[in-house]
Specification:
single chain; 301 residues; alpha+beta; Phosphorylase Kinase, domain 1; Transferase(Phosphotransferase), domain 1; 10 helices; globular
Length: 301
């Protein structure tokens, strides 16, 4: 029915899944690239994503509907989110010459943290911690529905504790990778928190923490000497009171970051309360309706 996205592993299509009695369910269908259908690495990634998402049931995480194989093609049917992602949201706001309102940024971050905490704390059917780390958090992997729902997506490179050495492989979008991962450290809860901190920065300032124009070597060098305090002091657009949260989430030393997504969530919630921000999905949905409408397209008053 149409392509929703394309990446290194494959593509995501908008599709209808026909169930009993001819009932159609709209879904997002993830497929492996045709040239990589026999590659065990890519097939393994999509199956790993299916196994991980199947164990995560939370309103802030995209749900899995089904997984299967037709010939050589492995497919994954997931919940379809009618809306946009965080990257598209930022771009739409910039095109209209405005920043995303603070209350809506904090709402997105709060919802994302709730989903992330659930993933980090998830347990298997045997009751044991799964040890899931997302490893690819970025604005583009935070999906936002027109009704104001916020959901984490793309667990294609996520790792569980059982994956062992896989957690040492450097994956993810370079601008959101924590400094210690470039030094060979394994992915962790704290590296996910850094990535979400970088995402928070981008939604607040409308600019990425590290410029995309940098080459990989330049980026690694910039990250290796990154000081969040200097970055915060140099940016005059950040709202008062948000600095302590960013300083801790983006600390170069993972041991000085938040110990959990829940701990960061508590600080974000306190910030919203102390600054009088009303974090309501209805308000966010109304903002999205205006922002995502084509120019000249009427919206409800």
């Amino acid at each position: 029915m149409g392509r929703l996205g394309r990446g290194g592993m494959g593509e995501v299509l908008l599709a209808d899944r026909i169930v009993d009695a001819g009932v159609r369910l709209r879904c997002a269908l993830k497929l492996v690239h045709p040239g990589r259908r026999r590659d065990p690495v890519y097939v393994g990634q999509i199956l790993s994503e299916a196994r991980i998402i199947a164990q995560l049931r939370h309103p802030n995480i995209v749900s899995i509907l089904d997984v299967g194989r037709v010939g050589e093609q492995v497919w994954l049917a997931m919940e379809w989110i009618d809306g946009c992602d965080g990257r598209t949201l930022r771009r739409a706001a910039r095109e209209r010459g405005a920043a995303i309102p603070l209350r809506h940024v904090i709402y997105i971050v709060r919802e994302a943290l709730q989903g992330l905490h659930h993933a980090h704390q998830a347990r298997g059917m045997d009751g044991r911690p799964l040890g899931i780390v997302h490893r690819d958090l970025s604005p583009g992997n935070i999906l936002i529905s027109r009704h104001g729902a916020v959901k984490l997506a793309d667990f294609g490179v996520a790792a569980a504790a059982a994956d062992g050495p896989a957690r040492l492989r450097l994956v993810g979008k370079p601008q959101y990778i924590a400094p210690e991962l470039y030094q060979g450290a394994p992915a962790s809860v704290q590296s996910d928190i850094f990535a979400l901190g970088a995402t928070t920065w981008e939604l607040l300032t409308m600019e990425p923490l590290f410029p995309r124009r940098l080459s990989f070597d330049e980026l690694v060098e910039r990250v290796s000497r990154f000081d969040p305090r200097e970055a915060i002091e140099a940016d005059l657009t950040l709202p008062d009171g948000i600095e302590p949260i960013l300083l801790r989430a983006l600390h170069p030393d993972p041991g000085q970051r938040y110990r959990s997504a829940l701990e960061m969530l508590e600080d974000v919630s306190d910030f919203a309360y102390e600054t009088g921000l009303r974090l309501l999905d209805a308000h966010f949905a109304r903002y999205l309706q205006r922002l995502l409408a084509p120019p000249g397209h009427p919206t409800e008053a």
